[in-house]
Design brief:
CATH architecture of the largest domain: Orthogonal Bundle
CATH class of the largest domain: Mainly Alpha
Number of helices: 7
Oligomer: single chain
Radius of gyration: 21 Å
Length: about 150
Amino acid sequence: MPSVEDRELWIRAPDLAVRLATILAVYRCSPTVDVEDWEWAVEVVKHSTQQLRRGIDKHMIGELEQADLAERIRDYVRERKGQFVPIGEISKHFERKVDDVRKLNEVIWHVESTGDIVVVPKDVVQSSKLEWRGRPTTYFTWNEAKRRKPQ
């Protein structure tokens, strides 16, 4: 495993797979665990652990307040699906809703690192704008490929 966090998440996966395969064999009234039972259990545990990792990535940002802020940022960019949202617009919208404005950028970049929003390449931004004003900035857009549904 590439990191300690990943090892901690996956450490119980073999035990869970054995338990699930055994339960499936019992429900099938089989005295033995077959290969099909094991393969099914392994796939279920893989999917479950990946979902757990996704949830941890989404919500584990230090404090619960920051997790709420991350969800609001996701919603803000999701509502502007198909548009390029500058980082300054996001910061301005949320600066009065947080206690520590310095943490706002950390949360924005955390949401970007989870893949919910993506940075729009500068050449795409330049080709879509008729008039270029001010200093270059970072633009985000909702990641359609992530196929995340609003909750």
